[in-house]
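Query form — protein Thioredoxin-like fold domain-containing protein

QUESTION: What is the three-dimensional structure of this chain?
INPUT:
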Amino acid sequence: MFCVAAFIVLVLMAAVSARYRRYLGKAWNCTLRRVTFRPCDTTFKQDIKDHLLAPLAVRRPGLVGPASVTLEVLAVLVVLTTIWSGYTVVKSGVNLYVYGTCNKQDSASCSLGAEACAIPDQTPTFGESLAEGDVIGAFGNDFASLGKTFSAIPARMQNWDAKDYLPANASYLNPFDEKKETALEVIDPGCTYCLQLFQNIEKAGFDQKQNLTYIAYPIASEDGYKFKNSLLVTQYLEALRLNPLDGAKTPVDWEILSRIYTEKNEAGVSWQSVINGADPAVATALLQDWSAEFGLSPAQVAEVASVAASDEVAGIIAANTELVEESIHTVKIPSIIFDGRRHDGLVSLDDLD
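ANSWER: The structure tokens for Thioredoxin-like fold domain-containing protein are given below.
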């Protein structure tokens, strides 16, 4: 183990100073034998230890023995740290390729990926498992997560067609045109980056070039939902899809989404921020007022409210959640499927253009 650690250290030191390069040949020979479970047939290990311990032997001979043991322990730590670092680099790289984030359990924490609201992974992290004394679980969960990422590589390489993932009762921002391609967003009504994506879509005229639809996916958290009224808004959106307003140029569910994402109240506060911070009763009243403003009669508003709380809508939301998690496999909101790809996180104007 000492030879392996010495080789690792010498590789780094030789990169910055030529004086250490003459040791690399012996270090590699010794390391190669050790990793193939053969004894080291050189004096390299002893030479290195003698070189390191010689000054101590002159000043404090009694400390040579403990220092030698310490070097062996440090060697083990260097090797283990190097192995874990290499594993982490590989895991982060594969996650970045497959999911657009180097940290699948907290996608928003990875600065290398696009900005997004993370879909939290409820599996304990490696550190959390170790803190609880669950060493087997720590390694088991981590390796299982990496295995799942590798299994998703083919999906990342596939040609993505939004039509394969459309939800039931899909509605379109503009009248459906058979001549246009279809684009599918996965959004949370409360996510700021969904707001920014919607605004980018409008600025780029993307919605005029694609048949744009969406899946409303309220991001769950340990104590409910990341944005407390996301489920409520999603319920109303699905209820409006089930009860479309005849003759409406733009579906009412899209009118409400557009207001949440692009408009502000009289105080200049984004309606998304208002909804996110509102008491559920206040948010419900807003959704009903907007529905009436966009053309629903009082009876239709009451019907939508009833349907929003129904088992039918709960079933649709559950099916959409399964669609997002088991078929689309995204860990970032928003995600959007178009042009044969799944784009994770906030998509820029240039990429939408």
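ADDITIONAL NOTE: DSSP finds 16 helices and eight strands in the chain.
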